């Protein structure tokens, strides 16, 4: 079990599907990332594939901190177990992270953006918050395949050596990228895989108010904004219920990959 510290005395950990999930405040989570490491924010649409996606599974098992972003997972767990957990969303975490002086310091954070359009919106919003990002500290993610290798990104990070790396690409990919960086860099920054969280603030995706995030309604806002895109994704995430019902705190057995016909 990971150790607690004076800044996170109220924090604890719960093993869900074999993953040690942090149960504490955003401030306490940020404090734990001070010395570097990989933070992941698993969402239900990706978690449901924990028994059939070995690379995603490995990234969660080797993360230094996993926070309870998935409202669906938290609701299921609290319905199954006496020891309930609180939800710490990626959006709440990012809001708190962006208040940190070392994150706001120009050149101390490298942002990995999902696309040029997203980057423009995100950077405009960050500038409005008083956070200026040097051009060299903005990296446009390519389309990563099943095996992640990005020599150009490694070279830039090893040259700049920022204290923080914030990854804004999609779930299922960002965790694998984060693990690749953790294992391949010559130093260990704090790698924050926050996915779409900044898009809810910058207008790149639908705005999610603080109250909606607090009451687990982020999925509804996204579904209403782009129903064809998000309703099938969240409907498919229902499979997480059966996975948690069968395994609870245990890591699900990995299913064999389907044979090529």
Layout of secondary structure:
Blueprint: E1 12-16, E2 19-23, H1 26-32, E3 37-40, H2 44-47, H3 54-61, E4 65-67, H4 71-80, H5 90-97, H6 101-104, E5 109-113, H7 116-128, E6 138-140, H8 151-160, E7 164-167, H9 174-184, E8 190-193, H10 197-202, H11 210-214, H12 218-225, H13 227-236, H14 239-247
Parallel strand pairs: 2-4, 3-4, 3-8, 5-6, 5-7, 7-8
Antiparallel strand pairs: 1-2
Helix pairs in contact: 1-5, 3-9, 4-14, 12-13
Walkthrough of the structure:
With 261 residues, the chain is of the alpha/beta class. It has one domain. Helices cover 43% and strands 13% of the residues. The chain is built from 14 helices and 8 strands. It has helices at residues 26-32, 44-47, 54-61, 71-80, 90-97, 101-104, 116-128, 151-160, 174-184, 197-202, 210-214, 218-225, 227-236, 239-247, and strands spanning 12-16, 19-23, 37-40, 65-67, 109-113, 138-140, 164-167, 190-193. Strands 1-2-4-3-8-7-5-6 form an 8-stranded mixed β-sheet. α3 (54-61) crosses α9, α4 packs parallel to α14 and α12 crosses α13. The radius of gyration is 18 Å and the shape is globular. The chain starts with 11 loop residues before the first strand and ends in a 14-residue tail after the last helix. The model is unreliable at 1-9 (pLDDT under 50).
């Amino acid at each position: 079990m990971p150790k607690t510290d004076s800044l996170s005395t109220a924090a604890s950990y719960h093993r869900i599907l074999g993953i040690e999930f942090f149960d504490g405040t955003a401030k306490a989570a940020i404090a734990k990332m001070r010395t570097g490491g990989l933070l992941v924010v698993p969402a239900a649409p990706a978690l449901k594939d924990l028994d059939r996606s070995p690379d995603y599974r490995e990234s969660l098992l080797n993360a230094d901190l996993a926070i309870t972003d998935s409202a669906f997972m938290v609701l299921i767990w609290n319905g199954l177990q006496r020891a309930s957990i609180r939800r710490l969303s990626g959006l709440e975490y990012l809001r708190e992270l962006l208040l940190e002086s070392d994150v706001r310091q120009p050149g101390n954070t490298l942002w990995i953006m999902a696309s040029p359009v997203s980057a423009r919106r995100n950077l405009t919003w960050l500038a409005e918050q008083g956070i200026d990002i040097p051009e060299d500290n903005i990296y446009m993610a390519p389309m990563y395949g099943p095996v992640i290798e990005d020599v150009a990104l490694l070279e830039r990070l090893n040259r700049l050596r920022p204290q923080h790396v914030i990854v804004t690409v999609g779930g299922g990919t960002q965790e694998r990228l984060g693990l690749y960086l953790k294992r391949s860099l010559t130093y260990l920054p704090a790698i924050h895989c926050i996915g779409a969280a900044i898009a809810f603030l910058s207008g790149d995706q639908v705005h999610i108010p603080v109250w909606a995030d607090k009451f687990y309604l982020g999925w509804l806002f996204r579904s209403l904004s782009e129903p064809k895109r998000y309703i099938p994704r969240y409907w498919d995430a229902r499979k997480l219920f059966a996975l948690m019902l069968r395994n609870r705190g245990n890591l699900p057995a990995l299913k064999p990959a389907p044979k090529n016909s």
